[in-house]
């Protein structure tokens, strides 16, 4: 384990991939590994890219990485793909759209399945980002699944969140209805060479005008991921947002808040794992289900009974 940590801290990509696999599989060594690398994290800037399926997030990410690399910064990409509820598998196909960076030693690409997590993110995404941070990557890009109204998890990880819209699909109005307006630091109107792009940009600007904004007003940036048009401006807007967060002290507040939330999430995860491991070993659930089927017990009483039995409190 110490050797694995040492290799990650020395920039070994294979070791980083191995560590992320251990994290995804929730191996027993995971918590100790994360504890060991934690002192070497906190330096990377995290960009979240979200939006509906087919908005061109992966192609946009590919072009954005090219712009970042031209500035000499190193990049890690976490591309989240939906996991099949039937087979448990995921296509993990986003690497296909990022082949132009596959041979760049300073670009680390990792595809991850959601494995049942809601919100368009894998449960292990935050921990994987820490591994990439420890790998000394300057910028970490997290591209979410794109599942509409459950996309809000990204705002709890990313420093800057990009919401990608496209013309011709009612995306702008749907995004406004879904409440995704609230999480965007930057709006990207991708495929802006298509008819209706100006209308999408105008609709978003009108909604921003109607909203009371204190501090940062999310810019609306048109891009064409096919040829990279507008991507340089997008990168400049991301850096402007980073400067705003740093100068206003919001970046520090953001990180403190997220550490508090992270501890809460770890506690919830560990309690859930502890309870269900004990329940599965005891075989209690089958008995409780039989009682509930006969209406001799309700699910709320069953849950309280399990909690009392395995957490020693009522």
From TrEMBL:
Transmembrane regions: none
Domain of life, source organism: Bacteria
Family of the protein in this entry: Belongs to the SIMIBI class G3E GTPase family. ArgK/MeaB subfamily.
PANTHER family attached to this UniProt entry: LAO_AO TRANSPORT SYSTEM ATPASE, LYSINE/ARGININE/ORNITHINE TRANSPORT SYSTEM KINASE
GO molecular function: GTP binding; GTPase activity
Keyword tags: Chaperone, GTP-binding, Hydrolase, Nucleotide-binding
Cross-referenced CDD domains: MMAA-like
A family per Pfam: MeaB
Record's protein name: GTPase
Keyword Repeat: no
Organism of provenance: Formimonas warabiya
InterPro entries for the chain: GTPase/Isobutyryl-CoA_mutase, GTPase_ArgK, P-loop_NTPase
């Amino acid at each position: 384990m110490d050797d694995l940590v040492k290799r990650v801290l020395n920039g070994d990509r294979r070791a980083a991939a191995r560590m992320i696999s251990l994290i995804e599989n929730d191996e027993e060594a995971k918590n100790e590994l994360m504890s060991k690398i934690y002192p070497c994290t906190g330096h990377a800037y995290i960009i979240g890219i979200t939006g509906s399926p087919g908005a061109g997030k992966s192609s946009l990410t590919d072009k954005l990485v090219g712009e970042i690399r031209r500035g000499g910064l190193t990049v890690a990409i976490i591309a989240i793909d939906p996991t099949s509820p039937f087979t448990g598998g995921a296509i993990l196909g986003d690497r296909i759209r990022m082949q132009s960076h596959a041979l760049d030693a300073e670009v680390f690409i990792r595809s991850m399945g959601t494995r049942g997590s809601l919100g368009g993110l894998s449960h292990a995404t935050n921990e994987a980002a820490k591994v990439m941070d420890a790998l000394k990557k300057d910028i970490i890009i997290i591209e979410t699944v794109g599942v509409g109204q459950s996309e809000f998890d990204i705002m709890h990880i990313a420093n800057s969140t990009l919401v990608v819209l496209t013309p011709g699909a009612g995306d702008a109005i749907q995004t406004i209805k879904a409440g995704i307006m609230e999480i965007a630091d930057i709006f990207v109107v991708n495929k802006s060479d298509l008819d209706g792009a100006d209308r999408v940009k105008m609709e978003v600007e009108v909604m921003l005008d109607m909203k009371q904004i204190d501090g940062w007003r999310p810019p609306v940036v048109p891009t064409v991921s096919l040829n990279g048009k507008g991507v340089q401006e997008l990168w400049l807007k991301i850096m402007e947002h980073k400067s705003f967060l740093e100068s206003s002290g919001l970046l520090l507040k953001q990180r403190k808040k997220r550490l508090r939330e992270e501890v809460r999430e770890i506690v919830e995860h560990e309690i859930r794992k502890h309870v269900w491991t004990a329940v599965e070993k005891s075989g209690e659930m089958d008995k409780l289900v039989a009682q509930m089927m006969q209406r001799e017990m309700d699910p709320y009483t069953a849950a309280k009974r399990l909690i009392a039995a395995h957490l020693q409190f009522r």
